[in-house]
Every structure is written in C-alpha cells, then in structure tokens.
Amino acid sequence: MKFELSKEEEKKVREWEENHKCTERNKSCCGGEITYSFTPTSIGTAVDATCICGQTLAVREL
Ligand SMILES: [Zn+2]
Q: How far is the centre of ligand 1, averaged over its atoms, from the C-alpha of 42 (Å)?
C-alpha cells in the first residue's frame, strides 16, 4: 500500500510546521521533524502529522 499526501495536505503540514508554537524546533539544528502516521480504515486513510515537540496535526480527517 502506498500513501501520499495531496498538494493541499502538504501545504497544510508545512504551514502548521512553521506556525505552531514549537517547543523543540529551536533546539534542533536541522529544522522541525515531522512524523506521519497513516491509519487505513474502510472509508479511507486518516493522516496525522506529529512534530518532534509532540504536537499533532490531523492532516486528513475522515
Ligand atoms: Zn513542534
């Protein structure tokens, strides 16, 4: 199975990455690190993005 973000979803994540009050980003030399989690269900795939600071963005809600 292959999971991809749409252009709009990528944009949403990028904006959130820059705009959320990140407590960890300044400690990291290489910028924020985002981890994606894909949850396949019968009606589609839910996508969450989690920052290294622990905050989570619902990228795609079902
Ligand atoms: Zn963060």
A: 30
Distance 9 CA to ligand 1 centre (A): 17
d(CA 1, CA 37): 14
DSSP string, 30-61: T---EEEEEEEETTEEEEEEEETTS-EEEEE-
Residue 43 CA to ligand 1 centre (angstroms): 29
- Domain spans of the chain? 7-60
- Token pair of 45 as six digits: 């795939």
> Tens digits of per-residue pLDDT, 6-62?
999 999 999 998 899 888 876 655 555 899 999 999 999 999 999 989 999 999 998
